[in-house]
Design a protein that fits this description.
Length: 137
């Protein structure tokens, strides 16, 4: 498994291959399509991320001192965004996640290239992942 810094660097490198934001959106859509299937029984109110215009479910399990995330969304771009986040943070210790600044998202330019409602959803996803990690420390 890559270190957290290596995983973030890989995302930045992957996105740097595309010059246009339309291509980056296409890449996000592909990430969402490759997200592992999410069991219907996990699509419950308590797993729903509040603050997202789309419906986004996030499940977490703590195993061997690490948090493992799975997720789904009913919107394709949002599904790509949550896929990107869990791709970086799943399998990390709660301490690694809680102490991370998630600054690579700003470096990507993702927030300013999303609609205001999607940017709010991204902030809610980050806050939920971080809160989950803080609660598990």
């Amino acid at each position: 498994m890559l270190s957290l810094q290596e995983a973030k660097a890989r995302v930045l490198e992957d996105f740097s291959m595309f010059d246009q934001w339309l291509d980056k959106y296409e890449y996000l859509i592909e990430l969402g399509k490759n997200l592992e299937s999410f069991p219907e029984e996990h699509k419950t109110e308590d797993r729903l991320i509040k603050g997202c215009q789309s419906r986004v479910w996030l499940n977490s399990e703590k195993r061997d001192g690490r948090l493992w995330f799975s997720a789904d969304s009913d919107a394709i771009i949002t599904k790509g965004i949550i896929s990107l986040l869990i791709g970086v943070y799943s399998g990390r210790t709660p301490q690694e996640i809680a102490s991370d600044d998630f600054a690579f998202i700003e470096e990507l330019g993702l927030r300013e290239n999303l609609s205001p409602t999607r940017a709010n959803g991204l902030a809610s996803m980050i806050a939920t992942i971080k809160k989950t990690a803080c609660d598990e420390q």
